[in-house]
Every structure is written in structure tokens, then in C-alpha cells.
Amino acid sequence: MKFVDEVDLTVRSGDGGKGVVTWRTEKFVPKGGPSGGDGGDGGSVYVEADENLYTLMDLSHNKNVFAEDGEPGESGERKGASGDDKVIRVPPGTVVKNQHMEEVLGEVVENGQRIVVAEGGQGGHGNAFFKSSTNQTPRHAQPGEDGEERDLTFELKLMADVGLVGFPNAGKSTLVSAMSAAEPKVADYPFTTLTPQLGMIYVSEFETFVMADIPGIIEDAHQGKGLGLRFLRHIERTSVLLFVIPITSDDLGAEYEQLVHELESYEAGLMDKPHVVALSKIDVLAPDERELLPDVVADGFPDDVTLLPISAAADIGLDQLKYTLFEQVKAARSSSPAPMQA
What angle do CA 285, 164, 112 make, to 5 degrees? Predict the structure, then answer.
């Protein structure tokens, strides 16, 4: 399935139906009065979170979403039929923006959460509405209100428990593949992963968490270089960060500091999330060298950083990594406030 995380759409709500001017004509009603009904309301356009969706791909096939207009009122003081609403279903974690004003209209983060992005016009009143003791025969009615038209941008921010952070070719895709049933493209060259990949990690029969393989970061990614800002935003919603740094790196500590710099430059506070450092690809070391890890490299990292040596290819250290991450995920879940309703 193709992963699409940004789509532009034009949405338009329906116009309200016009009220009508009609008169009662029954022969047993002398001096029949006004009987014009109100117009129906125009349909609105909503955005709703659907937990069965993982990408905005479906939206990319239809660039216009228009709700129906309301029907005109009818004689006998009958209101016109309201126009049908349109509901745009998106994955949880989708943000909706006004293209031209850079205004965030809202976001949906929980399954079933709904926001209105274009409200239907109200139907106009028919002449029966205007009848009064001083105006027994009103001869006017209202037109319906116009609907709204907006050019919108939909942005998906992945909602995963653990986000993998690392430079290209750090072994992140191999790690997701080894720990889950996901099958990201894996090869020995940078930017193999061009779109985020999600993997479900099973801790026990009833305990799981979701890991997101974010495309590799490069220096100045926060300024849009490489795959840049488009993918850094997926880090925002993850609860725990897993830095993946290959043991073959020339300077492990410097690589960690560069990754931290990119995250903090993108958004202050990202490093307040719980985080773990996985020293990957340790299968290239001799067994006696592996036993020296992580102590032999600990000086290059802050004292409070958890360092876990692993090899996804050789299945070394993966269970300890899984349980360490899950403990942090559980703590983050229990402390997270309920999402705000738009």
C-alpha cells in the first residue's frame, strides 16, 4: 500500500435552499394566508478519524469534496429537504489546515472524533415565517445562505508508541523487520526507507506497542534538507524515542549529539520524551569485544541515557530492547492526558 501523508483538497459545503412565497388555496379556508415553507439547510463537510486507515492515499484520488445544497421550501409550510453531508475519513493523527491562511482548523486523534471543516448554509425562511398580527400577507421570502468553500491541506502525523531516530543506513528498517511482521525495504545504501513504516511489536499475548521507522535524518534536516521536515513531524506524536546508532560509526557520541540537535532544532521539547539508544550492528564485533559494551563507549553519552547493544541481523539483544521500550511505553501511556476534542 502506498503511504501518502500530505494531500490538498478543495471542500465546499452546500448552499441553503431558498424559502418560497406561496398561499393557501383550499376552498374551505377563506382569505387563505401565507404557506411558503423554509428552505432546507445545506450539507456540511466533516473530517472523521477512522482507525482502519493508515494513509491519506484515498484522498489523493479525489481533489474535490462537495456537500449537497438544500432544497427550496414548499407550499403547506413544508421545509425543503436538507442537503446530504460529506464525511472525509482519515487516519487518527491527521491535521487539517487552511492552505492560504496557514491556519490550523483542527485535528482528529481518536477513532470517531469528528470536526467540521465547512458548515452548510442555513435555509431561507418562507413567507409563512413572516406572518404577524400586523402583516397578514407577507409577500417576501429569504434566499438560503451560501455554503463555504475552502482549500485545505491534510497532514498525517503518525501515531506510534516508539519512533526510530537515526541517520540513513543505521539499521532501523532491519530492526523493525526483526522485531515485527513489517517488511520495509532493506538495503545497504542511504534513504532505503522513503516513507514511514509501522511495525506491531508483540510483548505478550495481550501486550503490544507500535514502532515507527522514520526515514533517515541528515544534517540540517530541520531546515528541510534530505527528506527533512516532512518526516520529522512524524516524531512529534511518538511517546518514546529510540535512537539507532551503528557501532561502526566513527564517533558514536557525536552522532548522538547531531541527532539530538536536529530534533531540538525542529521542535523544542522533543527530547523531553523518554528515549533509549540502541547501538546497532554489533554482530560485526568479535564476541569478546561485544562483552565490553556498552561500558567502553559510555563516556560519549550523557549519564542518564540508556545504552543497549543490539544486532537485528543476528538477533542479539532484541528481547532486552523490546522489554525496555515497553516499560517506557507503559509509563508514557499512563501519564498521557486525554486528547483534546476539536
Answer: 155
The pLDDT, as a whole number, for residue 196 is: 66
Q: Which pLDDT score, from 0 to 100, does residue 237 have?
A: 77
Helix (H, G, I), strand (E, B) or coil at 73: coil
Could you state, in order of their start, the residue ranges of all structural domains in the chain? 6-156, 162-335
Model pLDDT, residue 195: 61
CA dist., res. 243 & res. 275, Å (int) = 7
Grid cell 398580527 is found at 133
User: What are the pLDDT digits (tens) for 211-239?
Assistant: 888 765 654 433 443 444 455 677 787 89
Place of cell 518526516: 231
DSSP tag of 79: P
Q: Which residue has the cell 540540517?
A: 220
The Cα–Cα gap between 45 and 65 comes to 8
How far apart, in Å, are the Cα atoms of 28 and each of 37, 75, 77, 111, 314?
21, 17, 18, 56, 93
Q: Rounded distance, CA 227 to CA 215, Å?
A: 7
At residue 25, the pLDDT reads 84
Q: Which fold has domain 6-156?
A: Spo0b-associated Gtp-binding Protein; Chain: A, (2.70.210)
pTM higher than 0.70 for the full model?
no
| Helix/strand/coil percentages in the chain, nearest 5 | 25, 25, 50
Could you say which architecture CATH assigns to the domain 162-335? 3-Layer(aba) Sandwich (3.40)
Distance separating alpha carbons of residues 15 and 144, to the nearest angstrom: 6
Residue 320 phi, psi (nearest 5): -60, -40
The SS3 assignment for 170 reads: coil
Question: Which residue from 61, 153, 65, 138 is spatially nearest to 103, judged by alpha carbons?
Answer: 153
Bond prior to 294 in cis (omega within 30° of 0): yes
Q: Tell me, what's the pLDDT at 281? A: 94
* The amino acid at 288: D
Which of helix, strand or coil describes residue 32?
A: coil
pLDDT of residue 28: 76
Cβ-contact 253, 296 below 8 angstroms = no
Residues of the chain with pLDDT under 50: 1, 184-194, 219-229, 338-342
